[in-house]
Every structure is written in structure tokens, then in C-alpha cells.
Amino acid sequence: MSEAASSSAPNHPDAFNQTKAVPSETPSLANLLRLAKPEWPGLAIACFLMIVAESAPLLNPLLLADAYDTLVDPEAVDRMQDISRTMITVLVVHSVGSFLGFIRQALMSVAGERVVARLRNLLFVSLMKQEMSFFDEHQSGELISRLTSDTAVLQIGTSQALPEVILGMVKLVVCMALMFWISAYLAIVVLGCVVVLFCISIPIGTWLGKLSREYQNVLGTAQGHATEVLGAMRTVQSFAAEKREAHRYEKVVGDPDQFPLWWATHKKDQDKTTTYRVGFFKAIVAAGFFTLIFGVGFGCLYVSLWYGFKLVNDGEITLGELTAFQSYVFYIGAGLGQTSSFVSKLLEAQGASGRIMYLLNRVPAIPIPVEQKNASLDKSQSGRDEEETPAIITVNHYVPTIPLLRPDAMEGNIRFENVNFFYPSRPESAVLVNFSLTIPANSTAALVGASGAGKSTVVALLQRFYDVSSGAICIDGHDLRDLDLSWLRSNIGFVQQEPQLFGLTVRENICYGIDREVSLEELEEVSRKANAHDFIVEWPQQYDTMVGERGVKLSGGQKQRIAIARALLVNPRILLLDEATSALDAESEHLVQEAIDKAVVGRTVVIVAHRLSTIKRAKQIVVVDDHRIIDSGTHDELLQRCTKYQELIQRQSMHSSQ
Ligand SMILES: Nc1ncnc2c1ncn2[C@@H]1O[C@H](COP(=O)(O)OP(=O)(O)OP(=O)(O)O)[C@@H](O)[C@H]1O
């Protein structure tokens, strides 16, 4: 296993900055709309209702103007009757508007929830499909941030911000038309102010959008760090690294107390992009933006009122018309203020759409078949076929024989043919060089060698977590890359160095990945073989006992035996065992060893072996040194001719006798 990679993280101050941020496709409104495509009909109806609901009250100022004028009209015959008729109409218009407003609000909110739920599912499926090297390069916390906060931003963008911005524009046009109808001169004054407002708000709005995107990015980095540390609390506490981790987190989030006057200046030795610093400028620009819109908007109101008084005084318009006009100016001012806040949300959503599109469209270097409920939706979401999509990272793309092979049964003959390999995230260092090895079906091969020699990598390549850089790996004579990946993996059992259990029950953990019903008898049988049954039935809830997050409630030996039971339930033709380097106590080791001895019978087994007892038992021992195979044979043969093996055995013997 890549111990180096995993253990370096808590100790290296900047380890979490080494992973790449999720790239973005060009953010665009078209992308944003595409992501909400299935909700278009609902959103269109909601938009229509919104326009009707919001336009209806625009009639009221005109009706009220009539009422005002009737009130001050000395020639009116039945003044109160006329006013009452008008006021009833005003109330009806208002009620219809409110009711339609309720329907559109409900429709939009539900459409938003549908957008976000669908996107999260699609995004999760897309993440599940990515090859292992993708996860080597991107921190899980950052991906979680894309899955939660980016999708939420997109939900607001498509179901609220976009319709509100459209409404704002419609309102502006309708109000301006009504204002021109009342008084063209007065309307021209207001129109001039609106144009000035637009010219000022566009650059500030763009700046705000940029800051919002930056804020989301840095928040993703902070989340990535927090997820990594919270998932490794035992390591953090055992290294007494809490303070260091808090400091690392603070480096991304920023410390507001460092800036006595609140102003987030950039000090030379500090990172420019902390959430506080970006958030600080985002808050100031947003406040300035809204103040400007409201300030200039109300300034217009007063200027036009002033000019309006003159027009009433000159007898050009009535007092009622002036009140109606002012109401429209007010609508425009309030509408622009509201629209501007939604414009910034829309810009945020545009930025998020770029990152989401990248993840949805990313073509995995090793296509993993993941069942998708609605495949056509995937295409409509991304807006293009997979074939058209450019591969973002360049790994050795191998064109498989189409269709992929799914033989009836696997015999389990393994052959490495002159394999060379480097990890895509570290292309400068070769991990396997001219690696050729044959493991006949039903035999056991033990890989031995120094730490970092490449043994776990061999196991990873056999499961096709990565593709070889050159050469080939064949199973029963078929290149791995020509085989159906789910068929391949369903025939391989894998017990990791540090077995990964899930926060589920023992039963669910053993049955993990099994699609069929598993009877209790079968469960008990594999657990017995794995020496796990006895300790499981001692617990009050037996197979229904929860194991805690990542199996924290179990001992190392218990976790390993459950992992062996899980691998056995698959009844794999090939069993891969990456032996734990961490010492188990003698009793546990004996029980695990016994479980392994039972598990290897009748299948091809590849063991990354660390224990002398395991090594000795293997029919074929492969000595890996400096990323190459330097010798292979039985224990006795190698003891006679291979110096490296002799050294290794000497070290192991000393270790066992200690
Ligand atoms: N995901 C990865 N990305 C980049 N490099 C990796 C990755 N995993 C392992 N490596 C590197 O590949 C080399 C071989 O690692 P590997 O885990 O195969 O060694 P190993 O022989 O199994 O070691 P050990 O016995 O300590 O588990 C190491 O130099 C390691 O740093």
C-alpha cells in the first residue's frame, strides 16, 4: 500500500495543498441551463406564473391613482361608491397575485430540490466511475464540497436566481412602458438613471462573481483538509498533532484576529487566499454593490419626484398620476436591488456549473461500469456524447477489443508480460520495471521485498485500479483491458493491509458488494472459515452488531478476519492478500494465519507477504527489489542462491524472535 502517501499527510504542513483543485469547464449560462434541463417544463410554468403574479400588482398603482383623483375631484357625484369599486378591484388583483405567487414559489422550490437531488446523484455516479488515479489527485473533502455546496449553489441559481433575474428584467420593461404612458418626460429622466445604474453595476457584479467563485474554491480546500484530519483522528492524537492540524486549518480559513483593524491585508509570508480574506472582500464588494443599487435607485426616486411636482404644478399630469408614477419608480428601485442580489447568486451558480460539468463530463481513463438509472439523462445533462468529450488527463489510453470479454468461468492463470508502470500522479518515477511473472491457476505466489519496492502496486494492477504504462497483464490468456471490469473484479477477492470496513453491521460488512440474498448458514460458514464466527457470536447482537465508523469498534485482528470472510463470500477465483505490516499479538496472528490458510485452498493467491510463516508456505516466492523482480523460486531455492532473500529472511527471523 502507499503508506508513504497516506502517512505523510498529517506530518507535512502543506501536504493537503499538493492535491489539485477540481478543474472547471468554462462556466456559462448555457451550461447552467443544461444542468436543469429535466426541470425546464416546471420552471417555465413557474416563470410564467411568476410574471403574471408579479405583473398583476403593477395594475394597482394605476387603479389607486384613479381613486386618489376621484377623492380630490370636486365634480364627483358618488365619490365613495366609485372609490369602493376601485378598491375591491385592487383587493381582487392583489389576492389573485398572491395566490399565483404561492403556486410559483412552491413550484420553483420543488423544482430546485429536484435539480439538486438529481445532480447529486449524477455527480456521485460520475465520481464512482472515475479511476483510482483521479482519487490520488483530488482530495475527498474537496469532492464532497463539490457534491454538497456546488450543487446547492446551483439549486439556488437555477430555481431562484435565474427566474428572479428574468422577472426583474420583465418588471423593468413593463414599469418603464407604464411610466412612458403616464409621462414621457418623467420616464426619460428615470430611464437615464437606470442606464447609469446598469453601467456601474456590470463591472462590480462581475467582480463579485469572481470573488464568489474564489470563495467556493478555497472553502473546498478547507473542507478537504477537515475531512482528511477528522477521518484520521487517532493518528492525529497519537502524534499529538492537534495544534499543528488546527494551525493548518487556520492557514486556509484565515485568522480574523490577525487584522486588528479588520482589513484583511496580505502579509508576505501568508497565503493570499484564505476564506476570511476572500470572504472579507466579497462582503465589502457585495455591500457596496447593494448600497449603490439602492442608493442610486432611491436618489432617482427623489429626483423624479421633484420633477414630477413641477409637472403637477404646471398641470401636465394629475397628482394621482404622479403617485402612480412614483410607485413604478419604487418598483424599479426595489426590483433592481433584489435582482442585483440574484445576479451575484447567478454568477456563483455559473462558476459552480463549470466545476460540476467538468466532473459530469470527465471520461474515466478506465471506464468503470456503474449502473445508472437514467443513462439518457446523463447525456442530456452533459449536453454531449461521451465520445465528443475530451479526456482531461492523459493516461495511457488503451483501445479495448469491443465488446469486452466476459468468459463463462475464470481459471485463474495470471501472467505479467514485461510490465512497466508509473503512477499517473507521479509520472517521473517508475514503480515497476520490466516486470514479468507467471502464476499458474490454483497456486500461491508470495511477493516479498523492501518497503516501497512495488508489491502492493502489483496487487492494485491486477484489479485494474490502474492501467500498465507498457506491457500487459493477462488472466487466462486475456489482456485485463479486454475483460469486462465488473466480471474481472467479481472474480477477485481482496484483503487489504488495513481492511476498510464501513459503519454498518457485521452482516452488512461481510455481504458488502454481494447482490444476491445470503443465508445465515452461508454467512456463518464463511465466518467460521475466516475464524470470525466465534468472536461475532459472543456479542449480544451477533451479526447485527454495528462496527462503528471504518470499523473503529473492532480490533485489528477482528477487522482482518471479517475482511477475509467478506472476500470468501465472493468465492473468488483469485485471492489477493496484502498482509498487514503492523504487528498483531501472537494469538491474533495465529487466528488470522489460520484463516488465510483455509482461504487459499483451491484458488490462485497472490500475497504481499511480510510474515515469515506466510512466506515459507508459498509455492512460489517472488523477490522484488528496486521495482524489479530479481529472483523467484521456493523458500529453499532462494535461501541458497538469492542474497537479498537471505537478508530479508534474516531480518524477518530477528523480528519474529524479538
Ligand atoms: N497512489 C500512488 N500514487 C503515487 N505513487 C504511489 C502510489 N501508491 C504507491 N506509490 C509509490 O509507489 C511505490 C511502490 O509502492 P507500493 O505500495 O507498491 O510498495 P510496497 O512494496 O507494497 O511497499 P510496502 O511493503 O511498504 O507496502 C512507492 O514508491 C510509493 O511511494
Give the N-terminus to C-terminus distance in angstroms: 25 Å
Strand order of the largest sheet: 6-7-8-3-9-10
- Could you say which structural class the secondary elements and strand pairing correspond to? alpha/beta
CATH-wise, what's the superfamily of the largest domain?
A: ABC transporter type 1, transmembrane domain
The percent of residues in helical segments reads: 55-70%
How many discrete structural domains?
2
Overview of the molecule:
This protein is α/β, with parallel strands linked by helices and 658 residues long. It has 2 domains: 7-222 and 257-361, ABC transporter type 1, transmembrane domain (ABC transporter transmembrane region fold); 414-491 and 572-657, Rossmann fold (3-Layer(aba) Sandwich). It is 60% helix and 9% strand. The protein is built from 22 helices and 10 strands. The strands form 2 sheets. The chain has a 6-stranded mixed β-sheet, with helices on both faces. It has a 4-stranded antiparallel β-sheet with strand order 2-1-4-5, covered by helices on one side. Helix 16 (520-529) packs across helix 18 (556-569). The longest helix is centred in the N-terminal third of the chain and has 51 residues, at 79-129. The site of adenosine-5'-triphosphate has 18 residues, from helix 1 and helix 13. Adenosine-5'-triphosphate (ATP) is lined by residues 1-5, 136, 423, 425-426, 431, 451-457, 608.
